[in-house]
Amino acid sequence: MEKLFCVGKSVIRKDALIKAAGRARYAADYEFAGMLYAAAVRCPKPRIRILSISDSRAKKVPGYVTLVTYKDIKGPNKWPLVINDYPFLPETEARFQGETLALVVADTQKAAKTAARLVEIKYRELPFIDDPLKSMEKTAIKLYGEDNVFSKFVIKKGDAAKALKEAHTVVEEEFATNYQVHSYLETQGVIAVPETDGGLTVYSSTQCPFYVLDGVAAAAKLGYNKVKVIQTVTGGGFGGKEDVPALVAAHAAICALKAGKPVKLIYDRKEDFNSMSKRHPSWSKVAYAADKDGRITACVVKYVLDGGAYSTLSPIVLWRGTIHAAGPYKIENVFIETYAVATNKAPCGAFRGFGQPQICFAQESLIDELAAKLKMDPVDLRLKNILRPGDKTATGQMINDSCGLEELIKTVRERTNWDDRVQNAKYKMQNAGDIVTGIGFSAAYYGVSLGAKGRYLDRAGAYVNIYKDATVAVNVGNTEMGQGALTVLSQICAETLNAPYKNIKLEEVDTSKVSDSGPTVASRTTLMSGNAIIEAAAPLREKIFKTAFDMLILKGADAAKPMSASDGVFSIEGITVSFAEAVAECWSRRLKMGEQGWYAAPHTSYNMDDGQGDAYVIYSFSATAAEVEVDLKTGVVKALKIHAAYDVGKIINPTLAEGQAQGGILQGVSWALYENLVYKNGIMLNPNFTDYALATTADKPEYDITFIEKPYAGGPYKAKGLGEVPLIGVAAAVANAVKNAAGVRIKSVPLLPEKIWRELRNCLKVTPSAP
Amino acid sequence: MKKISGGNFKLKCLVNGRKINREIEPGRTLLEFIREDLGLKGTKEGCGEGECGACLALVDGKAVNSCLMAAAQLQGGELVTIEGLKGRDGGLHPLQKTFMEEGAVQCGFCIPGVIIAAEALLRKNPAATVDDIKMELTGNICRCTGYEKIIGAVKKAESLM
Question: Does the pTM exceed 0.95?
Answer without folding.
Answer: yes
